[in-house]
């Protein structure tokens, strides 16, 4: 760890029971930070808890899913307080949600006429979202308010019909030209589906770009598909992912889940795929991540100082740091271990058996679904959850002493000084 300093301060964002065992979906939080550059209040953060038990009739995650679940931090994530949202609960996080250049939060709604997830029949688009909102945070009143509600966003057709549409499972990032790139997870229907209806079997990750701040989106490329993986096999097909612009201001990195335990027949956990593009997402180079970087729902961010950070895991819960910013070297941080060092209340700690977990453990005390965000030049915040009896299959073989009556969400602040 020479040349790298990690300073951790863990903060409990919320201790929420997210619903019954059958309803729980292992989402963490939707976390947004005002840009650490050129902001009058660079330490301001906003988080929204997300829960499958609080979805609307269209199947979208709804802001304000639990009373007091929306939080604001005015000190870069060290302390949090409840924030009211002055909007209807129908505003959802299904589309790419980004920060506008002025630091305000942009939120996009549902796709018109499309039930997100598995589609009842093959569709090719185009698709239209129901709303595009621009929100601002009043730090004095601790309230989020709509300052603009513009027209619907439009998304161009895919090259072939699809039978699954999951934009919330991908990422969104600014590009070097100021435009946006989004990376939804889809299934092409023209490719053979080994097991129709399964959650695992025919994924592709595609790139859409927008040159008008998200009003219109054009299909750019297929980054990877199960049938075209650059020689890297996958039972699930590429699916959950995140996308960031690296410190050179040119290279776009997409970190992609290949197999995170849902694949048929082996239910493997394997390293992520790393896809890079230097031509605004037109073409991509694929390679497999190092063996320690695995396996479900990767999240990524780049600090203003250039450090690249990825969070995720399964079977463990990890954060990986590349101080050089290009993945030449990775340092693995075991989040439960650092968490237990900092939490004094024993009832809020992870079981000792889950520290530095591996596949031989046979159970997991976290889904490894996280959120990560830069909050200053050399500081970031990673949010994660600790599962319990309401955590579905992930807790199936958990020892009784490790079971909880619900699931807790935490945030840990870190500092990286290259």
Strand content: 35-45%
Query: Rg, please?
Result: 20 Å
Q: How is the main sheet built?
A: 9 strands, mixed
What's the rounded overall pLDDT mean?
A: 75
Q: Catalogue the unreliable spans.
A: 10-29, 34-42, 49-67, 88-93
Number of strands: 30
Given the C-alpha coordinates, what overall shape results? globular
What is the overall number of helices? 1
The helix/strand class is mainly beta
Termini separation: 10 Å
Assign a percent range to the helix content.
under 10%
Summarize the structure.
With 418 residues, this protein is mostly beta strands. The protein is 2% helix and 37% strand. The strands form 6 sheets. Strands 9, 10, 13, 14, 15, 16, 17, 18 and 19 form a 9-stranded mixed sheet that branches. It has a 5-stranded mixed sheet with strand order 6-12-11-8-7, with no helix packed on it. A 4-stranded antiparallel sheet has the order 1-30-29-28, with no helix packed on it.
Helix and strand topology:
Blueprint: E1 9-16, E2 29-33, E3 45-49, E4 70-73, E5 81-82, E6 84-86, E7 98-99, E8 105-108, E9 117-123, E10 127-128, E11 132-138, E12 143-150, E13 154-155, E14 162-166, E15 172-174, E16 180-182, E17 185-188, E18 203-210, E19 216-225, E20 241-245, E21 252-256, E22 273-277, E23 285-288, E24 296-302, E25 308-313, E26 317-322, E27 331-334, H1 335-342, E28 371-374, E29 379-386, E30 407-415
Parallel strand pairs: 6-12, 13-19
Antiparallel strand pairs: 1-30, 2-3, 3-4, 4-5, 7-8, 8-11, 9-14, 10-13, 11-12, 14-17, 15-16, 16-18, 17-18, 18-19, 20-21, 21-22, 22-23, 24-25, 25-26, 26-27, 28-29, 29-30
